[in-house]
Structure formats: structure tokens, C-alpha cells
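Box 4.2: Ligand-aware structure prediction
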Amino acid sequence: MVTIEKNILIYGVIISTGYGVVTLEGLLIAFISEVFTTQSFSIGLVVNLYQNDTMNLLIGALLLNPENPLDQGSTVHALSSLATITLGDCAIASILDPVGNVIFNSGRINMQYPWAIESPAPGIIDRQSVSEALQTGLIAIDSSIPIGCGQRELIVGDRQTGKTSISIDSILNQKYSTIFTVYTSLGQSSSSILQVFLSLVQKDAIFYLSMLMATASSSAVHQYLCAYSGAALSEFFVITGELPSLLILDDLSRHACAYREIYLLLRRPAGREAYPGEIFFVHSRLLERSAKLSYNLGGGSLTCFPVIETLAGDVSGYISTNIISITDGQIALSADLFLSGILPAIDVGLSVTRVGSIGQWYGMKYVAGFYKLELAQFVELQSFSQFASDLGQESKNRLTKGLRLVEILKQSSRSPISLTRQVGILSLANQKLLKALAIKDVDLFLNLYLDIPSWTLLLIPPNLVAKSIVCCVFKAN
Ligand SMILES: *[C@@H]1O[C@H](CO)[C@@H](O)[C@H](O)[C@H]1NC(C)=O
């Protein structure tokens, strides 16, 4: 019969410490996700309750501020509450760390609310189906892989293929919408985070943005928590502000590595590729929190763009297939397209959206329908034409037009296009006239079109617009 001292129910004793993790004995009333404090004001988070080989009950915990080192043998007190992050309006235009310390503040100070870092995802009754579109400002995405508010869309690709670029463009495009954006950066270098932040500041985007970061040099615990804090921050604005919000998790492959590190430090058995067996649950409970809430709860929505980095274009890796199966679609980026100068380098064949087209504006649905069909026919014909020497006139026409259609989807970064302009471009693209242009002139054609003031477009029929731009292009040559 094991006798337990009365105190050890409420107090715990640290029996070992690791990098960011501790093992406790005692604290028998602890529950998973409970926080505790120590005499040196460190805060810990219970993540594992287990019995060691001699059947002693032990607790594995994470340290939320690992800069305060702990000694073996010191006691801890449970707080019987969940880990929280303090939020408020001051989070807008600021950079926070995963436990809520402000790294950069825009100067706003407001009431602070504690908000649970990990909360259960909204249930079925609290949701409604996705019905509104989220415009990313990228014509290639909004036309063929549309995204709805409340959807989870994975951005997957090798390094340096423009994953962050797509995220930033989507943030920039929310300037005139009500969507609040949260950019969560984990495992990146501080300099690249600063670069992202500055480019957003330059484009005046920080007034509807808040950023969370755990750099590559932060502890694994911070990198792991960062994704959940990001979700909590978005939820805060979705629930209290009844706003639609966009959460970018850049990137979840680092999150998986951080969790693997913690897991191994806690001496738990490793599974496939040394990732813990529960890695699927780690990501699914995070992504499950994105939702389109019912009107009773304010009708806000949390759209999530997790980012995954692949190696050599292999989307069938362990973590990426996990996330593909959790999300409602993916935008796959291809290094080959990137190198051949097609930007954004979206691989249309591998990219899908499972719910987004429900919210797509019918005008866009109409023009994009024709466009997608022609593009698909072109792609098929292109691979076929590499072998066939002589093609019929019909096929040749299709190839010449197709080459120009591909050209139209090219878009430089940091220059999102509004929905009406996108529809305009696609309806111009559907016209036969496009064939008259040389491929190198398509870019000029688009720029001329984008320069036309909107009000004139209301007065002149589109075929006339197209004709006059083509004339200008010819004149320019
Ligand atoms: C299990 O934990 C108890 C309490 O810390 C310790 O005395 C015992 O040696 C541990 N057993 C093993 C096999 O590590």
C-alpha cells in the first residue's frame, strides 16, 4: 500500500528538468493542460500524466518561460486553470510572442482579457456552412481554387516557391474588407519575420493585422504553443468582435518538428519518422478550430491557411498527407513552375478546394468556368503535342490561346487584384482577340487594362475595351 503525504496532493516536486520540459512527482489533482507556478515565478503546463516502471505517478510538463531555470527538488503549485494569453485591442498592429508578451507594440493600450490558448473547437450546432468567399487577390486562386470564409486551405510547396508570398498577398488584399488577419510565424529566422512585417507595414496593412512569432531560436515549447496562440488570437476577434478572420500558420512542418523535440525530451515513445503517434491529433485539434460560426454566435469566421514545406516536391510525406487529409483543400506550389517564371507557381493539377466554390460570386463562377475549361484542355494538349509532329489547325489555335491564358495567371507579388478586375481580366481572356497578341505583350495588355479607371469600364462594353487595349499594345510596339 502506497502512502501519500497529504501535501503532495496539492504540491508537486520537480524530479528532473530538461530543455523546456520538467518531470514532476506529486500534484495528484493535476489535469492535462493545467498550469502551475513555481517559487521563481515560472509557469508550467501539464501535458503528460503517466506511471513509470515502478508504478509511481509522474507528470510531464512544459515550461512556458524557459528563461527562468528551475532546480530539481523545488515545489510547484497548481493553479487549476488552463494556460491563457492576455489579449485585447492592443494586439492589433503588434507582434506578440506565444505566451502573450508584446515584442512590438503600436502604442495602443486597452483592456486586457485572458483567453485560453487551447480551447475545444466549436461544435456542429455552433457552426454554419461556408457561404462567403475570401478573396486572396491572386487571380489564379480566386478563379480556380476559390476559398470560403471558415475554410482551411493548406499551402504546400518546397522552400523558396512563394508560400509566404501567397500568404502576404492574401493579407494585403484584405485592406478594404472587414477580415482581420493573424500572421503566425514559427521556426523562421528573426530577419525573415522582420522582412515580412516591414513589407506589410509598407503596404499599410498592419492596422488589421497582428503577428505572433516564435523564431527558430525560441524554445521548442514556444514554437509548439505559437500555433495554438495564433488560433486563440483569431478566435478572440472572431468571438468578441464578431469578425471574419484569416489565420496564417507559417509553417506547420516546423511545428511538427518542435512537437517531436518536446515529445522526445519527455521520453515518450516515438512513432513513424520519430514523430509522436499523436501528431495527427496535435494538428487536427488545431485546424478544427477554424469555423464559420452560426449567427447566434455572431456569424464570425476563422479561415486558416496552414503552410507546409515539402522536400523535392514530395507532397506524400507523413506530415503533409496528415494535413492534406485534415484541411478542405490545398494550394500546391511547384518548384519547376517557379523556375520557369510562372508566378505564383501554383500547380493547378494538384491544387483543390473542397468547399470554396460555394461562396464564389456568380459572375466569377461564370467567367472562370470557361477559363478553367480552356486551360485544362490546353494543359492536356500541351503534353500531347510534345510527341505529335503535325497538329490540326484547331489544336494549334488552342495551343496559341492556351499559352496566353497561362500568361494571364501570372501576377507579381504584393499586387493583389480586386474581384471586379479579376472578372474583367478573365472575361477579356475569354475573347478570341487575345490570340492577336504576342505572348510578351500579354503583360502589357493586363497592365493597360488595370490602368483604366473603373468608371469608364461601366460605360464601355468589354469587347470594345479589349479592342482598344489591343490597339494600344500594337501602337506601343
Ligand atoms: C519512478 O519514480 C519514482 C519517484 O520519483 C522513483 O523513486 C523511481 O526510481 C522511478 N522508477 C524508475 C524505474 O525510474
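In the box above, the bound molecule is 2-acetamido-2-deoxy-beta-D-glucopyranose. The pocket of 2-acetamido-2-deoxy-beta-D-glucopyranose is lined by residues 15, 25, 52-54, 56 (CB under 6 Å).
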